[in-house]
Amino acid sequence: MGILITFEGIEGCGKTTQLKLLGDYLLKRGYPVYETREPGGTFIGDQIRRILLNPENKGIGKITELFLYEACRAQLIVEIISKRYRNDKEVILCDRYTDSTIVYQGYGRGIDMGIIEELNRTASNGIKPAITFLLDLDVNTGLERAMVRQAHHEKVQHTQGETAEQENRFEGEALEFHQKVREGYLKIASREPERIKIIDAKKGIEEVHREITKVVEEKFKNM
Questions:
Q1: What are phi and psi of 174, to 5 degrees?
Q2: Is 147 in a helix, a strand, or coil?
């Protein structure tokens, strides 16, 4: 089987940057790498992503939201990950996965964990990450970073003459919601320390990258 590595964390924690750095690192060492994300990763998934993350869609019910995430994941699994997972040399890097659903829809929205876990198992077809990096960061710092990132994204799109896409619906949630999400991540990390590696995201980008590559090299050595 291939190896699935996922990146998790609150808004603005830098997981997307670290995923790309790890992808480049592994490619230089001869590993075939596939990078993807949730929500998204497929044509259908990207359309669902636009619904889920658009701040204008404030009326999405929490169960509707959950089903949309799971539908997006199911499509990514059947169209991309299941096929690549069968290649025993492939490294799949995914920006968010089932843990995000547990913390955002479970701890954040208060949906019954039993329902979420059952839907996660079904949508993921039982495929689990070998390593999950939790980039931990205090909520205020994360939201500040996320707002700067969104402003930069909009500026680039405007410069290129594109219509700015809004993907900040969750950033508009109350501080309490984001705190619940962070606490949720730390709780599941405490239950699964072998899989989930907590990384201090306040450190510099290069230092975080070095910590991540050290964990990956150790994991590959023991596989």
A1: -65, 155
A2: helix
What are the CA-CA distances from residue 74 to residues 39, 63, 119, 167, 196 (Å)?
Answer: 11, 16, 10, 21, 22
Kindly state the tokens that stand for 195: 């899989």
Q: Rounded to a whole number, what is the largest CA-CA distance in the chain?
A: 49
- Threshold 0.85, pTM exceeds: yes
SS3 208: helix
pLDDT in tens, 50-83: 999 998 988 999 999 999 999 999 999 999 999 9
Q: Which phi and psi angles does 59 have, rounded to 5°?
A: -90, 10
Nearby residues of 155 by Cβ (< 8 Å), 6 or more positions away: none
Q: What is the domain partition of the chain in residue ranges?
A: 3-221
The architecture (CATH level 2) of 3-221 comes to 3-Layer(aba) Sandwich (3.40)
Q: Which of 174, 172, 153 is nearest to 163 (CA)?
A: 153
